[in-house]
């Protein structure tokens, strides 16, 4: 029994999965029109070639959307400011790209009269959740088609065979089978040898970062300026967000900065193994933390650290378009209202090290911190402070409690 004809907006990357979805949709939804939505989030693809490929394999219409700057300012910077790190290491490059891609897909679907949305996410992964929660938030009335949950393809080998059978051009082979996702913030690698967490990622897998062995023998220094937690300058000169992140990626990548090998806790309940490269982002996360250390008071900093874990979980789990995320943004924006200044970073052999920080909003006082006695702090006050804090400890000792 065939499915009814529909006009379907497909989130199209031109990778293995979405490449074979177009002919599959044509086969299983006879008479349907396919609108391929290509989102440019800085992955550096040849979009004219992708457009041609989509049309050649059955798409009726192709929309290419330049989302790079919006992605940085509306998704990367808020996540950076919130201090988000998932599973101790992951800087959420794929996670925070999915909401903006799905949002554009919905916008195109509504503008072109589509009755359904389709994606190429597997039934085991996190991305199906991220796409479909965005659909629910922005267009809950549209039908969702997720071929990986319906077809009889069960592996990437099967997908490659399907592509060859239907004359769909792909780059993947059985020998070179990594699943990659790239944008201006990072690139991820999964599949192949990485499915065994006991294996070290091979050197020829890495794309954005040079090996530590081949990195320069001399360190490189770079100055990054922030205004209210947002990166705005390099070497004292204002630059736009796309140029800033592009230049940081290049300079940090040369020094092998930003590689991680991660056993990850997926939202759907299983563990997976992958490798990520986030060169510029690794530098920015470290640099912003140093500006915060100068400008944010202790209580606010401690609360922000706790909420950063929740924000990371929220982003990872696809809950971007929620009141909670908006509320957390409000807190972060207030907490970093004075996080303005400049950090000097040292890039060397895979490390992004702080080499100095300054801020016109600094709470640091050398008069207070210095070992030289000053008039701003009476050391005699410490006695009463210690006595009050230590009173419960003292009483337990007097009562003989361990």
How would you sum up this structure in a few lines?
The chain has 402 residues and is α/β, with parallel strands linked by helices. It folds into three domains: 7-68 and 89-178, Rossmann fold (3-Layer(aba) Sandwich), CATH 3.40.50; 182-358, Argininosuccinate synthetase, chain A, domain 2, CATH 3.90.1260; 366-398, no CATH class.
Notable characteristics:
alpha/beta; 19% strand; Rossmann fold; five-stranded parallel sheet; 3 domains; 12 helices; Argininosuccinate synthetase, chain A, domain 2; 402 residues
Structure explained in plain terms:
With 402 residues, this protein is α/β, with parallel strands linked by helices. It folds into three domains: 7-68 and 89-178, Rossmann fold (3-Layer(aba) Sandwich), CATH 3.40.50.620; 182-358, Alpha-Beta Complex (Argininosuccinate synthetase, chain A, domain 2); 366-398, no CATH class. Helix content is 41%, strand content 19%. The strands form three sheets. The chain has a five-stranded parallel sheet with strand order 3-2-1-4-5, sandwiched between helices. α4 packs across α5 (127-138). The longest helix is centred in the first third of the chain and has 19 residues, at 93-111.
């Amino acid at each position: 029994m065939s499915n009814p004809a529909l006009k379907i907006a497909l989130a199209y990357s031109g990778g293995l999965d979405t490449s074979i979805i177009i002919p599959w949709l044509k086969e299983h939804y006879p008479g349907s029109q396919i609108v391929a939505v290509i989102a440019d989030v800085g992955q550096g693809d040849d979009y004219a070639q992708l457009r041609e490929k989509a049309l050649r394999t059955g798409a009726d219409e192709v929309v290419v959307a330049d989302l790079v700057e919006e992605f940085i300012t509306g998704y990367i910077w808020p996540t950076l400011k919130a201090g988000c790190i998932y599973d101790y290491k992951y800087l959420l490059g794929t996670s925070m790209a999915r909401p903006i891609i799905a949002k554009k897909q919905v916008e195109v679907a509504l503008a072109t009269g589509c009755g359904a949305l389709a994606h190429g996410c597997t039934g085991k992964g996190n991305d199906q959740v991220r796409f479909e929660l965005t659909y629910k938030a922005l267009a809950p009335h549209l039908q969702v088609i997720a071929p990986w949950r319906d077809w009889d393809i069960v592996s990437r080998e099967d997908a490659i065979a399907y592509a060859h059978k239907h004359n769909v051009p792909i780059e993947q082979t059985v020998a070179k089978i990594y699943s990659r996702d790239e944008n201006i913030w990072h690139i991820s690698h999964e599949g192949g040898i990485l499915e065994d967490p006991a294996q070290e990622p091979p050197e020829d897998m890495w794309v954005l970062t040079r090996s530590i062995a081949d990195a320069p023998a001399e360190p490189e220094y770079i100055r990054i300026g922030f205004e209210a937690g947002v990166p705005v300058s390099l070497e004292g000169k204002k630059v736009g967000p796309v140029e800033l992140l592009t230049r940081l990626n290049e300079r940090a990548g040369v020094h092998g900065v930003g590689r991680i090998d991660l056993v990850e806790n997926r939202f759907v309940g299983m563990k997976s193994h992958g490798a990520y490269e986030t060169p510029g982002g690794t530098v920015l996360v470290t640099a912003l933390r140093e500006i915060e250390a100068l400008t944010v008071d202790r209580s606010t900093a401690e609360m922000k650290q706790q909420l950063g874990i929740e924000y990371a979980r929220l982003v990872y789990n696809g809950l971007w378009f929620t009141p909670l995320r908006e509320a957390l943004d409000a807190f972060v924006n207030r907490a970093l209202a004075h996080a303005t200044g400049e950090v000097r970073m040292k890039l060397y052999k895979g490390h992004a090290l702080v080499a100095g920080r300054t801020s016109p909003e600094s709470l640091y006082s050398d008069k207070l911190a210095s070992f030289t006695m000053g008039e701003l702090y009476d050391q005699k006050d410490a006695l009463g402070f210690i006595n009050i804090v230590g009173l419960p400890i003292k009483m337990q000792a007097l009562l003989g409690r361990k």
